[in-house]
Automatic annotation (TrEMBL):
<dbReference type="InterPro" id="IPR039566">
    <property type="entry name" value="CvfB_S1_st"/>
</dbReference>
<dbReference type="InterPro" id="IPR014464">
    <property type="entry name" value="CvfB_fam"/>
</dbReference>
<dbReference type="Pfam" id="PF17783">
    <property type="entry name" value="WHD_CvfB"/>
</dbReference>
<feature type="domain" description="Conserved virulence factor B-like winged helix">
    <location>
        <begin position="220"/>
        <end position="276"/>
    </location>
</feature>
<protein>
    <submittedName>
        <fullName>GntR family transcriptional regulator</fullName>
    </submittedName>
</protein>
<dbReference type="InterPro" id="IPR012340">
    <property type="entry name" value="NA-bd_OB-fold"/>
</dbReference>
<comment type="similarity">
    <text>Belongs to the CvfB family.</text>
</comment>
<dbReference type="InterPro" id="IPR036388">
    <property type="entry name" value="WH-like_DNA-bd_sf"/>
</dbReference>
<dbReference type="InterPro" id="IPR040764">
    <property type="entry name" value="CvfB_WH"/>
</dbReference>
<feature type="domain" description="Conserved virulence factor B first S1">
    <location>
        <begin position="4"/>
        <end position="64"/>
    </location>
</feature>
<dbReference type="Pfam" id="PF13509">
    <property type="entry name" value="S1_2"/>
</dbReference>
Amino acid sequence: MVNIGKINHLTIVKEVDFGMYLDGGEDFGEILLPLRYITPACIVGESVDVFIYLDSEDRIIATTDFPLAMVDDFALLEVVDTAPMGAFVDWGLAKDLLIPFAEQKADLRIGEKVIVKIYLDEMTERITGSTKVDRFLDQIPHEFETDQEVGLMVYSKTDLGYKVIINNEFWGLLYENEVFKPIQRGDFIKGYIKQVREDEKIDVYLQKAGYWNIDNVTKSVLDKLKSQAGYMEVTDKSSPDTIKHIFGISKKSFKKAIGSLYKEKIITIEDKGIRLL
């Protein structure tokens, strides 16, 4: 079955002057892979991974170029043009992605970067974008378990921390005081469920519960590391005076702290410094 807006593994059935045709099954018949997208791996009788979408004339077409995001994904994309029907964002393909005016949370401007939900319009089978994110997210949370691993996309900064999208399905909140590495809007990061509150809002964090049992000295090292953009040129081989000057603690306490953080896979210890993962 061919899925528009997704990567499909299709068989090449014939070659013509302007490209190759792929087997799209009963629903789509033969799908053109234009000449400019043909690679040395494209051989009649073999299968190839292609992205399927509609071209500017609404004809189904295949490409070996893959977009920055696909149908059902969220992505941070740049507005590159505006037109009477809406705004266009660059999503990595020759044909830019349309965000109709009706799907814009606010008027979009060229050069602006916005978080877009990519979806398939079932009526037209056109791949479309929307900045009205709320309508694509479930308001009743799944029955998550504490410390369950989830995928997060950073949506925006708030007074409390960061508003995130969980598994492309739910809103979540990541508290500022529980973030120990630089993150920004549009980042995709691994996280864990902290709790589903009584009001059905979801709190998440970036480390499992055991991480929060670290002592005050270890936390002070983490706080300092965070303030330095996640990297510092200091290790357990640094002099006691250097460690005392930077952290205000003994070398023995410092070694214990970074040892704990390394064991929890929160930092890496490099030749010349320590770095947040």
